Amino acid sequence: MNFEFTKEEQAFIERVRDFLKREAEKDYASEIMAPEREGHAQLADSEERREFCRQLGKAGFLGLTWPREYGGKELPGIYDYLVNEELASVGAPLIGKGVGIIGKTLMHHGSDKLKREFLPKILNAEVEFALGYSEPGAGSDLASMKLKAERDGDGWRLNGQKTWNTSANFADWYWLAARTDSTGPKHKGITLFMLPLDQKGITVRAIETMAAHRTNEVFFDDVWVSDDYVVGEVNKGWSYICEALDYERFALYTFGPVKLKLDALVELLKNTERNGKPLAQHEHVQRVLARLSTRVEAAKGLQRKVICAAAQGRVPTVESAMCKLCSTELGQDISNAAMDLLGPEALLSHSAPGNVGDGAWENSLRGTVVDTIGGGTSQIQKNIIARRHLQLPNPS
Question: Which residue ranges form the domains of the chain, and what is each CATH number?
Answer without folding.
Answer: 7-94 (no CATH), 130-236 (2.40.110.10), 253-389 (1.20.140.10)
